[in-house]
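Subject: complex prediction, re-run

Hi both,

The earlier run crashed halfway through, so I resubmitted it with identical inputs.
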Amino acid sequence: MKQVLLAALLLVVAAGTANSQWDLPRNLPPEEYGTVLIDRTSAQNTVVPVVFSHIVHRRKHTCRVCHFEIEFNFKTNTTEITEAASRGGKFCGTAGCHDGRTVFGHDKPNCERCHRGTRAADKKDIDALTALPKSRFGNGVNWVKALEKGLIKPLTHLTMPQTDLSFDKRLLLEAEWNNIPPALFPHREHVAWLDCNNCHPDIFNIKKKTTKHFSMVRILKGEFCGVCHLTVAFPMDDCKRCHPKIR
Amino acid sequence: MKKTILLGMFILLCVAVTVGLAQTGVKKKRPLPYEYGRVVMNGLSGQAGLPAVEFDHWLHRTRFTCRLCHVDLAFAMKAGGTNVRAVDNAKGFYCGACHNGKKDGTGKRLFESCAVTYTREDLHRCEQCHSRGRTVKREYDFDAVSGRFPKERFGNGINWEKAEADGLIKLVDELPGVSIHRQPMKVQKDFTIAAENKGIPEIIFSHKKHTVWNGCEVCHPEIFIGVKRGATKYSMVEIYNGKFCGACHGSVAFPLLDCQRCHSKPVQPA
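This time it finished cleanly. Structure:
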């Protein structure tokens, strides 16, 4: 009887370990990192899927503008974007964005500018990145430095100005494993791009140490930090950037 | 015996997985504008062989203050907290105080709520409220109603405060035979509430904006003791858990997404 129990236990442990392999997701080429192909209903309606480039948009807008003010979800294909809604001034068509006055709108000659169906970037958009500070992974751009140095001046809001947030709490996050030095989380660099609500309380609780299951394995599966730092913000290959003392 | 142990282990594993999924580090699905503020009441409906009741706040708040239903008609603030019985409605309590088949102040006949005996023909009327899981043709359409009001982000996508201030909705705060007529009170000036964390903007709280809908009694003394400023201590964690401001803001009033709508006082440079 004991043997059966032991075998079952071993099986559970083995399944658990197999699950926690440190496989980093394969990264896209720098100019395609952060580019999203949106195909919620396009293909069904025989329309070419939409390509959305974070590198083009984040030079001009902070994350907050689209993911807070305009209510785009973080997960591809979960926002109920429709042509009618966009034409009616929601989502992409919000006043101050693709409304036909500020930037190209939803009229005939412009369809293919978004409905392109490919991640391939325009040469001028790639060239625009060369002037920005370098980083090793992701887009190859250190966006935090670019913002701090004033090399890019993204809009922080469209209609609802953000109250000046000087919140700069730095959190030391102990790693689960003994030999891994802690991660350092700076609020300031995040607040520059994001609204409080983008992370709290859905992704992270606001009370220290109450966020459960906040482990590297879960992060690599796209939870917690992984919501952004796998697909758009600098990817996890850059261990040192969060765990500064890692060797 | 072996089978029992294996089954036991399997159940344990399932429990572990479920507990593990209880909190995920990803964003939650937000209700769509017409779903926001919808309350599903399933206290006794099942026993009567009826689907649960769906109550849409967006429809009712175009005509009535929160106070009228939540104070004068004694509706609890939590779904299922009132446990309304059909017989109560039939006697003119709760929903039945307005939905009694008689004409209201505007000359409109409001359909009668629950009765003690039913006929097959009544089904359509029952389904006006007992609609969970059914496709019911409603008298009011969300897009048509919301299209009349100023737009806003989040929640119902309607700026209720502005709609009221601009006179687009005229709120009824008293129900003859139920409410008492109250004298208007002097409006207190807006004041600030300090945030717990340094660097987070202070809250500007407006009694004026709240009393239009709530009078005094929706909030005081149960949610906030309110006899003396600072007598009630609360944190954002409790608010996210549906206490204090979270009693309304999070489910019906503008949601807690909108941090800076309350935390709106510019931070003084140190």
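Residues 15-22 of chain B have pLDDT under 50 and may be disordered.

- K.
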